[in-house]
Amino acid sequence: MNRILITGASAGIGAALARAAAAPDVDFALWGRDTLRLSSVAGECRARGASAGSRVMDLRDAGAVAAAIVATDEAAPIDLAVFNAGIGGVSLGRDGLEDAAHALDVATVDFVAVVAGATAVARRMAARGRGRIVVVGSVADRLPLPMAPSYAGAKAGLLAFSRSLRGALARRGVGITYVAPGFVKTAMSDSAPGPKPFMLTSDDAARRILAAARAGRAELAFPLPYAILRSLAGFAPRAAAERAASAFAPRR
Ligand SMILES: NC(=O)c1ccc[n+]([C@@H]2O[C@H](COP(=O)([O-])OP(=O)(O)OC[C@H]3O[C@@H](n4cnc5c(N)ncnc54)[C@H](OP(=O)(O)O)[C@@H]3O)[C@@H](O)[C@H]2O)c1
Question: Residues with beta carbon inside 6 Å of ligand 1?
């Protein structure tokens, strides 16, 4: 895994992933929007001996993602592609309902752009007969979240997409690792209201994600209490899961 693409590398988990993977034999393609933070992360990677190029890209322009992937892969073939960028938090109007413009951004960045990018890189990796794709989802992928329906829906979509793509690539030498983190201390979790039990540092999360990718794991949910909750939610009757989640429904 020497050529590594990371989306959302300018902050949080993506920046921590870049720092954790940085080594003299690694060549990064780091994507993000904030030029200064992105070049600072690239500098940290270079200080660890890696090569690092960056691309400023707004993933709300999802139609541009496939071509950007092809250009990045043509510059040097990608061995590991980590689709990590995401919008989270809770954005509710005064009526307690999600803002429609925010929901569109979440659906586009957290789902559509990942589907477009992962599909584009999967085709290139399959032609070479090697490569790994990491999709960063969330433990919210199986939870009905009344305060963040677009986020929960996007992450549920990523889980289904990753499982389906894995089947399509099974005999082509390309692996998919789908990751479902619980709370990780970043700007995203800072912006969400309420308690955040079992929160991990971004460095801890990055180490776990990299280890799962290197071990060729299909899926990883962490930390353990959330992995258990997520499994139980997967088996719970829909009505019971929605009743439990309604305790978190926003009030007007
Ligand atoms: N933190 C948590 O508790 C938690 C829990 C579960 C899952 N996750 C998932 O982990 C991933 C990383 O989250 P994080 O906590 O590290 O968040 P973060 O600190 O807010 O960082 C988000 C990253 O995504 C990039 N990004 C956001 N909108 C973008 C856009 N429109 N175009 C391009 N890049 C964009 C940001 O780039 P700029 O800063 O340059 O705009 C930044 O690099 C997300 O997929 C998130 O859903 C996080």
Answer: 8, 10-14, 32-34, 37, 57-60, 84-88, 109, 136, 138, 181, 183-184, 186-189
Q: How far is CA 113 from CA 45, 59, 120, in A?
A: 25, 6, 11
Q: How far is CA 148 from CA 17, 93, 98, 186, in A?
A: 26, 12, 7, 18
Going residue by residue through the chain (252 aa), what tens digit of pLDDT does each one get? 699 999 999 999 999 999 999 999 999 999 999 999 999 999 999 999 999 999 999 999 999 999 999 999 999 999 999 999 999 977 787 888 899 999 999 999 999 999 999 999 999 999 999 999 999 999 999 998 888 999 999 999 999 999 999 999 999 999 999 999 999 999 999 988 888 999 999 999 999 999 999 999 999 999 999 999 999 988 888 888 888 777 677 666
CATH code of the domain occupying 3-248: 3.40.50.720
- The residue whose CA has the least distance to atom 19 of ligand 1 is 12
Q: Which residue has the tokens 């499982």?
A: 163
**d(CA 100, ligand 1 centre) in Å:** 19
Token pair, residue 238, equals: 């829909």
Query: Atom 44 in ligand 1: which residue has the minimum CA distance?
Result: 86
DSSP 7-54: TTTTSHHHHHHHHHH--TT-EEEEEES-HHHHHHHHHHHHHTT-EEEE
In the sheet with 80-83, reading across from the earlier edge strand, the strands are 51-56, 27-32, 3-6, 80-83, 131-136, 174-181, 219-222
